[in-house]
């Protein structure tokens, strides 16, 4: 995937993760994108290790995998910040 695709996917996934796990995160738009991109990478890495697939672009399975990764990253981010 290209750089712009990772940013757009990160934005979508970051928004989904914050919607699923609301709270006082702070950071705004850029932190949402950063957490989403990192989450997509983490989700892709973990799902590849478990043999469940990878993040390959804009399809439903990639968005679900990336969202789970973003939820993991958001959870860790909230624990570290508090």
Automatic annotation (TrEMBL):
It is a multi-pass membrane protein. One of its GO terms (cellular component) is plasma membrane. The chain crosses the membrane at residues 6-21, 28-46, 58-77. Pfam families: Transgly_assoc. Keywords: Cell membrane, Membrane, Transmembrane, Transmembrane helix. The keyword Transmembrane applies. This is GlsB/YeaQ/YmgE family stress response membrane protein.
